Request: fold
Amino acid sequence: MNRLFLALIFCFFSFSVSAQNGIIKGKLINKVNKEPVPFCAVAIDGTAIGANTDEQGAFVFTNLKPGFYNLKTSCIGYKPFILFEVEVNNAKAIFVTLEIEESISEINEIEVTSSAYVKMEESPVSLRTIGVAEIKRNPGGNRDISRVMQSLPGIQISPSFRNDLIVRGGSPNENRFYLEGIEVPVINHFTTQGASGGPVGMLNVDFIKEVSFYAGAFPANRGNALSSVIEFDYKDAREDKPQVSFTVGATDLAATLETPLTKNSGLIIGWRRSYLQFLFQALELPFLPKYDDLQFKYENKLSKKDILEVVGIGALDKVSLNLEANKTDQQKIILNSIPVSGQWNYTLGTRYRHFRDQSYLTIVVSRNHLKNTAYKYENNDEEKGRKLFDYDSHEIENKLRIENTARINGWKINVGAGFESSQYDTKTLQQLPNNITLNYTSDISFFKYSVFSQVSKGFFKEKLTTSFGLRADGNTFNNEMSNVLNQLSPRIAASYIITPALSINANVGYYHQLPAYTVMGYRNTSGNLANANSEYIHCIHYVAGLEYDAKRNLRFTVEGFYKNYLNYPFNINDSISIANQGSDFGVVGNAPVVFNNRGRSYGVEFLVQQKLFKNFYGLLSYTFLRSEFENVAGKFVPAAWDAQHMMSITAGKIFKRNWELGLKLRASSGNPYTPYNIEQTVLISNYDLSGNGILDKSKYNALRLDPFYQIDVRIDKKYSFKKWTLDVYLDIQNITIQKLRRASS
Reply:
């Protein structure tokens, strides 16, 4: 497979009363109680420009040239903080909010430096943060957050038309996503049910303020994850006047509106529509995808101590067949194997926060719904052909989470509980080899519940920071999983500052995850729940590493990790662990399984990261990874995600007159793959049913693809006018047109 992709033009408009030079307006607030922090210094890093906050914590910088600026705080009693890459133009004032944390150390006890990188007490290891400017400018990223994250260590490089997140050798289903603290099961168009990946991201980057990526050391208030937790923080709507932005790219167009509604409330709403189907038709591809998505954030500051947010995101996807694209063998194979499909999903949630002097209460209520349909006729003839596949499914969740976070005498304490109602139903018809017909209807509903607590504290003048968390999950699906003592999830993390720039960090955690609804709701040919004895999947993480924060926004890290999987579902029909599935379209997990599969992944990650400094930025990551799961004989064999060696280099330079050049090189050794069983594949009866080859299960992942590399190039030019701005970019992915090949052997 090869891919050469161009992203064309991005246009940004904002309304303004009159022409003005660049302005940054901001507020400095206490992160815990949201009180303003007065009389503190805020400076533009690398310059002599500075200001002090007033009694309301407000500050302003004026007469700035268009460009990117880093804001640095310095305040007695608070930890230093840097906000990176605030983009300034002449068309509008930029509003920012800086949230800083109190420091319990006495003055001059230890040397305090302003780190460019976030470190939380609960997660001193395996936490990376990505700013909105890094997402927008990433070469080959096409403003898709999932693709941008593939530059980070531990995340597998995807050379195909997919953006599945494969983190430290784990399945795509092992990741969990939160928007403003509200869990969102689906963040991709054409998502694989039972997993989480897809070819196109749903999230509108114009909403994003920052992304926090946890590859381990998950906080106790985030459950049901084995590989990663990803938090998306949305920015606040503008407080002065409406702003509209438009994006025109190679695959879709989008519009975003930010506007104040009242003195204390605002709205951000964005819509996007694809014209990918026209591009695919022009390229004579056999399938034609089309999608729309809509998302919004409403925020109301009910009082100085109360904030209410409402967040919504939804998508409508459809894949039709281009029956005229049937000239080549490859086109015919795709036409025979891909069904006509439709999918829609939404998440709607509310977060209420009440702030006190040293604590805050959070209440989150949300609902999400995924509908997935697909059908296939023999020879794609809907009038005369036999129906080979017909699928209709719904997943519905209603969630409530209540938690309280407090800081008392240097202790950080988080306690809470969650409750959730879950419903899954499906109607499935599938013609299988050997004249077997699978035809069943399933409808299950049950309740989930959880309690959690995390306590963190610094010792020895904050040189040593420790955190202990405990979580317990249960549900009413069966007696085994109803007992929360069977799903206790303890975790402990520690960080020790060896020198002001060098620290050692470690974490051990025991995590649990519920199997996919497609597994729990599957019924056999007799109509019985085949997996009624479902169990939680277990995974124990061991992580340790060193971090060196050099001057000039430069960081070096090295981390080693080991993940031990237990109770993974093993697909009886295909004789493989479900941990190896999820990178294709359709449905994963609708099969009989046993919960006795074991797995392991381990490796080491290196990272060198340069945040913006003197108009240069860069990131180099290397990961050595082994991922293995037991086969049908109980022997550990390479998993589908056993990438072994992965490297990514991203670098960019901002030039005069608002020109910017970015380059990205990604390279990976070949992943394992399973050859076809030729004898079974050539049987016409089998091919007519599947439209594709039959895998040789006795040689699962016995072969490897050739090593792969990809080079992406991006050129940006920004024009700043009196009342609007225009950003034009050319983004070329896989500029050398490298192909994904199977090894010649």
About this structure: The first strand starts at residue 5 and ends at 14. The two ends are 18 Å apart (CA to CA). Residues 124-391+404-431+443-670+705-721 form a domain with the Maltoporin; Chain A fold (CATH 2.40.170.20). The chain has two domains: 17-100, 124-391+404-431+443-670+705-721.
